[in-house]
Amino acid sequence: MAEYTNTISLAELTNAARFEGIVLVRSAEIRVSQAGKKYIDMNVSDCTGTMNAKMWDASILPPAVGSVVHIRAMGNEYNGRMQLRLERVDLIRNQDAVDWSVLVPSAPENPKEMLAEIKAAAEAIEDQDFSLLTCALLERCGDKLLTFPAAKQMHHAERSGLLHHTVTMLRATKALLPIYPQLNASLLIAGVIVHDLGKLDEMDADSNGVVSDYSLDGKLIGHIVRGVIHIEEAGKALSVSSEKILLLQHMVLSHHGIAEYGSPKQPMIAEAEFLHLIDTLDARMNEMQEAIAHTLPGNFSEKIWGLDNRQIYRIPVENN
After folding, report:
1. DSSP symbol at 165
2. 86 and 180 share a domain?
3. Structurally, how many domains does the chain consist of?
4. Over the stretch 30-50, which tens digit does the pLDDT of each residue have?
5. How much is the pTM?
6. Dihedral sign of CA atoms 152, 264, 183, 137 in order
7. Are 244 and 231 in contact (CB under 8 A)?
8. 121 and 253 share a domain?
9. Could you read off the pLDDT of 2-12 as tens digits, one per residue?
10. Domain span at residue 46?
């Protein structure tokens, strides 16, 4: 039975308010201030999001990424963004005493319903080869897909985040396809569904959707190349034509757009260009939503690395 819970969430924290409870460590390191003093800089999270935290007394070692800690802290508004000024940090060793629903951000929709929607779309793909290939790649993922995040720290870094990212991309694609009838809908929908499935090999994530680290496979190969390999294996097992295998592989290989972002090839077919753009759109909208949620109205967020180090402004009057 859970012993550790929080009286308020990180999202509810206000300036000078007390916070005592449990948080999940997303990053932690010792840094040096301009005055030459060491301090601990951390990013911690609960189910409502992630917040920066600083402990100006660096007499303890930074806790490990993925660990659960009980903290005492004070809310501190800095540049229009809430931070935690840490007073005490204690490692929680008994994981059974933790209420994980307090800690882990989760996708806003039911994962079983999202997976069912994606599988139905795969089965409905008009081209039988692309349909069978997509269904086979989904089947390979098993139940792991129900909880797996889309990233360690960036967009859709949440329980069931990979499903959330995929299903929103799928819905956007279906909405836009009537405007661009020249596109091969079967190839495009297949590409949307399978483009990030290699992430299940890339990251070590537990059943709560918490990523402890990138796997050896992820560090040496990565989800793009691994995804291409899985398409090759599944395509040959299903006797799919080599050209169709190549087309779907190109969709995965080029979906990050350029080499600097991890794609060995730039999009060379219209469907791949569309996939790259819709992937970028969904990732950036999620990053912006996360930034706005942790910024006070009328202020700018911190610089967001995933948005080219831009600061995002939260409009004071919400658009109803």
Report:
1. H
2. no
3. 2
4. 999 888 899 999 999 898 888
5. 0.78
6. negative
7. no
8. yes
9. 566 677 889 88
10. 10-103
